[in-house]
Amino acid sequence: SAVISQKPSRDICQRGTSLTIQCQVDSQVTMMFWYRQQPGQSLTLIATANQGSEATYESGFVIDKFPISRPNLTFSTLTVSNMSPEDSSIYLCSVRDSPDTQYFGPGTRLTVL
Amino acid sequence: RKEVEQDPGPFNVPEGATVAFNCTYSNSASQSFFWYRQDCRKEPKLLMSVYSSGNEDGRFTAQLNRASQYISLLIRDSKLSDSATYLCVVSRSGGYNKLIFGAGTRLAVHP
Fold this sequence. Notes:
The complex is a heterodimer.
Chain A: E1 4-7, E2 10-13, E3 19-25, E4 31-37, E5 43-49, E6 56-57, E7 68-72, E8 75-80, E9 89-98, E10 101-104, E11 108-112
Parallel strand pairs in A: 2-11
Antiparallel strand pairs in A: 1-3, 3-8, 4-5, 4-9, 5-6, 7-8, 9-10, 9-11
Chain B: E1 4-6, E2 11-14, E3 19-25, E4 32-38, E5 44-50, E6 55-57, E7 60-65, E8 70-75, E9 84-91, E10 99-101, E11 105-110
Parallel strand pairs in B: 2-11
Antiparallel strand pairs in B: 1-3, 3-8, 4-5, 4-9, 6-7, 7-8, 9-10, 9-11
């Protein structure tokens, strides 16, 4: 199974600032995703991080707000830009190494004041 | 209406009890079905896939009814360590088969 690490594990930020979250996988994976889990709610897919091309965003999420990089098959970053308190959430990186198996990173707990 | 609906619970059961969770999905074109487990303040982890014929993994049994668009999870002989949130997950067809998560059902097993 894939082992995923995320940095930072948590952060408290001021509104208007930006935070970049890093995701590192211990093996090369084709499919890499970013999710958000707001308090008491389930996971919502933000975007699919594509290696060598622009990310594919889900409805309600835009590149200006959540720019994503994927320079290689083991690493990706998600930036939360111009943050507001509504962005307070857990952000999770996820990878799929087979059609039926998807793994999640430990998450980044973000609080925006 | 949400694409995947679950009873949020919580289900409070004693050790040794049998408990069942239900889930319905609205997209009849959904292809794959899963139960994930999420412990408090942790990431979700795959518990088991759900197959049309039904499948069992130890104390856990999953069933799928495509006609009714209904998925279930049965836990027998509950353990304290089963306390968690159980997420019903459906794979939407097309492209890379995006996973759609239910909001989860919380289970608390007490001594």
